[in-house]
Amino acid sequence: MSQTERTLKVAIIGGGMFFDDIIGQSFKDFMRGGIAGALTSIGMSHLAPDVADVKIDVCAVGTRSEKSGTAGKIIDWFASDFPDSQIEACYGELVWQDILNRHQPDVLFVATPDHVHTQPILDALNAGCDVITEKPLCLTIAEADQILAATKANGRIVAVDMHKRYDPFVRDMMLNAEAKYGAINRVRAVLEEPLEVSSEIFAWVENSNPFAYVGCHWLDVVHHYLKVKPRTVFATGQKNLLLNWEHHHLEIAKRQDIEPESFKRQHAIQTWDSLDVAVTYEDGMRGDYNNNWINPAEFEGAVNQEIELYGIFGRGIVDQQDRGFREAIIGDGSRTRNPSFGGRIQHRGGELEIFGYGKASIVAGLLAIIRRRLLGESPEELEQTYPNAHSQWDVVQVIEAASLVAEKNYQSFQAGNGTPVTALLTDTGIEIIDPTVT
Predict the structure, then answer these.
(1) Which residue of 26, 235, 296, 325 pairs with 405 in a disulfide if CB–CB is 3.0 to 4.6 A?
(2) Contact (Cβ atoms closer than 8 angstroms) between residue 134 and residue 14
(3) What are the Cα distances from residue 213, in Å, to 146, 206, 275, 324, 386?
(4) For position 72, what pLDDT does the model report?
(5) What pLDDT was estimated at residue 2?
(6) So what's the pLDDT on residue 18?
(7) Where is average pLDDT lowest: 10-24, 131-145, 264-278?
């Protein structure tokens, strides 16, 4: 991008569950009107005049399998609103390398599976690209160290789509937490995904776990707003439903009165049903994080999420199901809705537009990139203005520690030895403490 063009070229890899709802629709909005109008959602509207003329241009969308045709379908979807757009559908195991070489985008948006974030990010940084990636940043601190080193060496931006930071309910509680509740003794956070995520939608669940996939959101919120440092991790988990899916999907089909063959996956799924992670922070605060991806389809909301703070003078809780929007519809049942995440608005004669905190964190990343590329600000100056890679190191450390500890405790429990394993977190790594190992 040059000073004269004032255009940011964006390439997107991956076309996951929230593409049409959040990622793709957000970029349609940006292509139509830039990002200035969305800056209020991140408290940056004072910068609107400086970026109002910057155009966002999606140049390519890449997915792995040409047989699925996902990228082509996304291009057709973009063309329904932008018939003159020249977005290219790209395919391949290393599709991002092809896109970086041929399109030379300013920004690579990484929406690949959890375990396929690191290499695209590194390749993009080394090609002179800035990055916005879906959460989590990565799954190990070794990968995080690589990303941070490449970010610094290339002077680039790596933003992470940590949208829960921008949930107005959560943000209000967290910003005022210590003033209202005093020192925080404990945090309890729950985020439960529907069963179809692990059994139908994502083929890659065996390479991740529900804590890495969504627990990272609450870790980011707690670490960002409370400025706490994790020091120990204890974790246990359950492998009952998905590990025995070849049997349990038959029972679910019977209960739902559908054919078992209608399930995309009918064999054992080698991953956790749920993980329960306890983190002790440097100031003594306790964080309890409970995550699963087996919530029944019949549950009233798209997900079940809540966060509760326990302080010495008071407590606060944000529960999605208690925000007050419920519907009962024939054929759909009783449901709670959350337009604060990805609401839609369309005025008469106007275009469909998305609003909400799902879009806000993408805006924050794009703004940081524009400020670096056009306004001459350094990555160091911008560090506190968006969810950057550096802010995710502690999150990744807890994710990796929890995965290691939970697996060791699972094996120990199966052997009749209880769950004795914990992890000590240092400033540079993870030390597993297992009293059964001499």
Answers:
(1) 235
(2) yes
(3) 21, 12, 11, 27, 20
(4) 95
(5) 45
(6) 77
(7) 10-24
